[in-house]
């Protein structure tokens, strides 16, 4: 079976009726690129940058980040989407000395930390912008819940860009700026948010947890954690519709993107991109190649 999948290398992610879907890979470090290329993905849909921060005992320097981002961008033929720091929740950074919280998943995490610790955030933005000249870069902000947050994040990105240009440092002119949709709030106002960005990437891991109020780390209620749940699927469909109405593309980068029992549903909604871990790329491609989107009947 594995060998049969290997024969799909070099073939298109195209449905029976000729619809092409982008399949990209999720990575956590430049070392993952080898596996991505071996599995025939052309781009990166989610680079979880927090692993650069979690490896050491102090914040990674601008230089270290720049080198890591540059390496990935140079290695890929297609677009590389790098997500800005997403700590907090289940991902602790000991050296930041963030006090223990009652509800870490509802607490000081991701974009909330970055908009609060602007100096730290700008180091990452500088590294990203400097690396942007080596290929096609997308910058993606995590855990957005309000329109103010995305506006603030974008303003800091613009400010950082101006500062670099003033220093005579080159920055790419065509960086795509996007955001994760992983809170129900973001899904519900995705028509408004779509005016602010070039793309959406749906984080079904968190979206499921927050929609169903089921902690994704709690084994005792794992049976209640279900991305196939109607409420979750309706939110995803709403996001796809709002993205397309605004003329932007929309993908999924949570684990559900690799769930081949959901591929038909996602294609029926009109999803443009799926980003999965490297070992799932060919399996999802195979599934797409067997689907005829004109025959899909969505029951949502
Ligand atoms: C998600 O929430 O679906 C996601 C992709 O982000 P993470 O799993 O890193 O929280
Ligand atoms: Mg998430």
From TrEMBL:
Cellular location(s): Cytoplasm
Residue range from the parent sequence: 248 to 547 of 547
Enzyme class: transferase
Function per UniProt: General (non sugar-specific) component of the phosphoenolpyruvate-dependent sugar phosphotransferase system (sugar PTS). This major carbohydrate active-transport system catalyzes the phosphorylation of incoming sugar substrates concomitantly with their translocation across the cell membrane. Enzyme I transfers the phosphoryl group from phosphoenolpyruvate (PEP) to the phosphoryl carrier protein (HPr).
Entry's transmembrane regions: none
GO cellular component term, pick one: cytoplasm
Lineage: Bacteria, Bacillati, Bacillota, Clostridia, Lachnospirales
This enzyme's EC code(s): 2.7.3.9
GO MF annotations in UniProt: kinase activity; metal ion binding; phosphoenolpyruvate-protein phosphotransferase activity
GO BP term (any one): phosphoenolpyruvate-dependent sugar phosphotransferase system
Protein's name according to its UniProt entry: Phosphoenolpyruvate-protein phosphotransferase
Domain PEP-utilising enzyme C-terminal, first and last residues per copy: 3-292
Residues reported to bind phosphoenolpyruvate: 48, 83, 205-206, 216
Residues the record lists as binding Mg(2+): 182, 206
Family: Belongs to the PEP-utilizing enzyme family.
Catalytic function, reaction form: L-histidyl-[protein] + phosphoenolpyruvate = N(pros)-phospho-L-histidyl-[protein] + pyruvate
Active site location: 253 (proton donor)
Cofactor: Mg(2+)
């Amino acid at each position: 079976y594995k060998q049969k999948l290997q024969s799909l290398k070099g073939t298109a992610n195209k449905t029976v009726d000729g619809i092409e879907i982008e399949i990209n890979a999720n990575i956590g470090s430049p070392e993952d690129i080898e596996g991505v290329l071996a599995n025939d993905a052309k781009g990166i849909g989610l680079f979880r940058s927090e692993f650069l921060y979690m490896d050491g005992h102090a914040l990674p320097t601008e230089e270290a980040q720049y080198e890591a981002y540059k390496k990935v961008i140079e290695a890929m033929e297609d677009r590389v989407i790098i997500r800005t720091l997403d700590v907090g929740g289940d991902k602790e950074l000991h050296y930041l000395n963030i006090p223990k919280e009652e509800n870490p998943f509802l607490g000081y995490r991701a974009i909330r930390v970055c908009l609060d610790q602007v100096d730290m955030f700008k180091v990452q933005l500088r590294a990203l912008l400097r690396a942007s000249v080596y290929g096609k870069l997308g910058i993606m902000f995590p855990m957005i819940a309000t329109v103010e947050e995305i506006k603030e994040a974008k303003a800091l990105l613009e400010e950082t860009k101006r500062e670099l240009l003033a220093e005579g440092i080159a920055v790419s002119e065509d960086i795509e700026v996007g955001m994760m949709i992983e809170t129900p709030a973001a899904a519900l106002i995705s028509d408004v948010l779509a005016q602010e960005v070039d793309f959406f990437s749906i984080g079904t891991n968190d979206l499921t947890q927050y929609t169903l109020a089921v902690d994704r780390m709690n084994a005792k209620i794992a049976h209640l954690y279900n991305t196939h749940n109607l409420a979750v699927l309706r939110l995803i469909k709403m996001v796809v519709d709002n993205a397309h109405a605004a003329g932007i593309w929309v993908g999924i980068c949570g684990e559900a993107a690799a769930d081949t029992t959901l591929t038909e549903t996602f294609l029926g909604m009109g999803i443009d991109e799926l980003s999965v871990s490297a070992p799932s790329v060919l399996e999802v491609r195979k599934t797409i190649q067997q689907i005829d989107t004109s025959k899909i009947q969505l029951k949502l």
